[in-house]
Amino acid sequence: MSWKPLGKLMLHDPLTSLLNRQGFYELLRSKEETAEPIQSIVTLELTNFGSLNASLGSSTGDKVIKTSANRLRKIFPDSSGLARLNGDSFGICFDTTAKATEIQEKVNDFLQRPFFANGKIVVLGARLGVAHRCEEDGLFGEALVNCAEVALHHANKCQVDIVRYSDELHHTAQTHYDLQNQLRAQLLLSSTDLHRGASGEHFKIDHTVIQNREGQLTGYLVSPQWQLPDSTLMDADEFISVAEAVLATDTLLNWVVTHAITMCHENNKQGSGELSYCINLGSAVKFDTTKLLELLRGHLLTHEIGAGQIKLCISCRHEPNDCFQRFYDALTQCGVSLILKDFGGNQNPFKVLTKLKPEGVFISEQFDPERRSMNGTPDLLQGIFELLACCNIDSYSTFATPFVRHPERSTHYQIG
User: Fold this and answer.
1) 317 pLDDT band (50/70/90 cuts)?
2) Would you tell me which of 70, 125, 176, 360 could form a disulfide with 394, CB atoms 3.0–4.6 Å apart?
């Protein structure tokens, strides 16, 4: 084989025939030597592709990737280059400053069409990161690709469709990176305490009281917290988000579950068997559901825990998928209740309740009248309470709420 074909193979992705990452960088370097250097980079990542690969197999995944590459060629004929940067992400470069809105519209159109692979109909989403050239800040060439990928990472983290790179975003990414390194180090130092379910120098567990409308104590919301070097405490949602980035979610969930069940067991021995313990999993999405279920079953078998005393509280920012429904069914079978957080915020409450019947829900703080940016209206909030009452589902909130017209059908609890 001559060196030219070999060189071509080294710079192209064998599955799609697009440029690979190295080939993309070579293209950017060559364009820097011309009168028309690259002005914009767009990085695109298919969402839910990992689940597709796991459920339908890599051969189906490969066909979806090839189809995606062909569609990108068609919808961006004016681009200066296309690349497959890694498994399910692509890079697109332009000689002119790309208009993010136009790109998003084209991508949405391309994704609304289903994929047909191995007899299966597949519909995927995508998120985009956009970065524009700025020579003064060194944003060109490979650095521009890095910036677009930082924007894409932020889009994934915030679960939004498109993010444009900025200095503020760079600062946020750097801060998050520093937090990840701090967390890795402190997890190593605190591994013994975490295994025992104990609080330590860096990691705390907050026990927020839960009361019914009459002011009676009914249980605790058990939330993991991280004490930062400046002594501030990071709440469960943000803490678990950082933990997910360093693949430490399972370690933290093991810690807080062990702590809550030990607390429940000790209080039961002292005659407080009527209290419940709601374990706050924050916005966790990347955790091993099998390991968590095994941990719960093991603790429930070895401790004197009453039915329904242990509850898992997890964010419900999107409608539950099939995987989450299976997790919910398994929790129900082992006697653990599910509480959904952020209910009524970014999802259709009716659609959620057609797929799941949680024991209770935390009303989204979007409905808090003290928040000037609240999106939920009083009428909508009352409608949600009526829906919950009809389904015999309890509600929780951290703010004052109106009384439901059918209090006998459900119970409202105040947190804190």
Assistant:
1) low
2) 360
